[in-house]
Design brief:
single chain; Aminopeptidase; globular; alpha+beta; seven-stranded mixed beta sheet; 4 helices
Amino acid sequence: MTSTIYYFEMTSRQEFQAVEVPEGFELRRVNDPATNARLYREVGAAWLWTDRLVWSEGEWAKWVKRAEVETWVAFLKGEEAGYLELDCQEEGRVEIVYFGLLPAMIGKGLGGAMLTKAVEVAWRLQGTERVWLHTCTEDHPHAVSNYEKRGFRLFRTEVV
């Protein structure tokens, strides 16, 4: 089975196209490896996220405790909605490493709001010059259009 990976970037804050965020929708920063591991499994199950399923508690802790990594959990009126991980890289690059909604929150129109909040956080980080991410053909059917609507540009594709 082949998959296409799509790489997107935003190189200027002015390219960003925010959407209105529903009342009661917010992101809260966390720094807990167990939370990352749980949300990775719960959010990623439908989209075949598998690379970290073999990580030990120690590997999760090593990743999450890095100063360059930020984890944010999304909430809608106090209920957990999803999560995202940011990785602050060299030369002002910020990667949205993981991004997604919990299964019970899919279909409620929250993808654009969550991406809006993620991009806002990424551009607020000191020295950010580029926000980037990748997705693939196994992701949610609206993922690519969501990224494009928020101002991301495709810069590379890869068939694996």
